[in-house]
Design a protein that fits this description.
The protein is mainly α and 305 residues long. The protein is 78% helix and 1% strand. It folds into 2 domains: 41 residues; 232 residues, MetI-like fold, CATH 1.10.3720.10. The chain has 12 helices and 2 strands.
Length: 305
């Protein structure tokens, strides 16, 4: 039997170790929170100074960006529209393929096929976005120009397709998790009643997982909104308000990349506009993430009832 003093020393040592681990974890959490607070503080301060000098309504509704003109204009509307076009277009391409792949992996694929497709999905996730951008510029766009001769060298359609390819793994993985969360007795009950497997999938599985699938799409769209290299290489850097997928456009991220490499002096309105555009991008991505989280919470709550 271990002496009482030795046992007490061991207990004290373990308690001290646990306190040390707790302090280290707390320090990591504080560093993360302070860093986020610092980023938001700089963003809000600079954007606030800009919007205090420039009408927020004009900033959000004007279509011209001309800071050096006699009457400076800072219209962000074409950038917002371009960003929405890319995000929605990418979701249109990624949603059906991603969901059908998830259904196949969940219901129909063999173990070998599951391992193979899971490896392909992981490989797609590891491809650098600049490689996707070069693929869009030198392969997808030339093919589109053969099919539709009026397609410009930089166009929104090519960017939407390749951004959709980039977010496809996200849609597939998260949709599969949503399908996995559907209780098996629901599916077994449908099969026991004699319904074909395809009808069970269409009438029971997909409706039950619809909240999680929609959340997966929103999370993928948030990633598409924040994408820079693909849209810069495929869609170009021309800020214009256009609804044609065959023409080039500019997104918020591409504009920030272009403006960030410029010569705007610190403290000028053009410099502060950089942060105002960043604030618009932050609000958009945060709103999409929050919508996705709310959908996940609702779907979990319904399953718990």
């Amino acid at each position: 039997m271990m002496p009482q003093g030795v046992a007490g020393a061991g207990t004290a040592s373990r308690a001290a170790g646990e306190r040390l681990v707790a302090h280290v974890l707390l320090a990591c959490t504080v560093i993360a929170v302070v860093t986020l607070a610092a980023v938001l503080a700089v963003l809000v301060r600079e954007a606030g100074l800009f919007l205090a000098d420039v009408s927020p309504w004009r900033f959000l509704t004007e279509i011209t960006w001309a800071p050096a003109a006699e009457e400076a204009r800072f219209g962000v509307l074409p950038l917002v529209v371009g960003t929405v076009q890319i995000a929605v277009g990418a979701a249109v391409f990624a949603l059906p393929v991603g969901v059908m792949t998830a259904v196949y992996l969940h219901q129909y694929a063999s173990r070998r096929a599951t391992r193979l497709l899971s490896g392909v999905t992981a490989l797609m996730s590891s491809v650098p976005t600049v490689v996707y951008g070069l693929f869009a510029l030198h392969f997808v766009t030339p093919v589109l120009q053969v099919l539709w001769p009026g397609v410009e060298a930089f166009n929104a359609l090519s960017a939407c397709m390749v951004v959709g390819l980039m977010i496809l793994p996200t849609v597939t993985v998260l949709s599969r998790e949503a399908l996995d969360s559907v209780p098996a007795p629901l599916l077994n009950a449908g099969l026991a009643l004699g319904a074909p497997k395809g009808r069970v999938v269409a009438r029971i599985l997909l409706p039950a997982a619809s909240g999680g699938i929609l959340a997966a799409v929103l999370i993928a769209m948030a990633r598409a909104v924040g994408e820079t290299m693909i849209v810069t290489l495929a869609a170009g850097n021309e800020s214009r308000l256009t609804w044609s997928p065959f023409e080039g456009l500019q997104t918020l991220t591409a504009f920030l990349t272009q403006l960030g490499t410029g010569d705007a002096a610190t403290g000028t309105r053009e410099f502060q506009a950089f942060f105002a555009v960043g604030a618009v991008l932050f609000v958009g991505t945060y709103g999409i993430h929050m919508a996705g989280r709310m959908l996940v919470s609702r779907s979990v709550g319904r399953r718990g009832q």
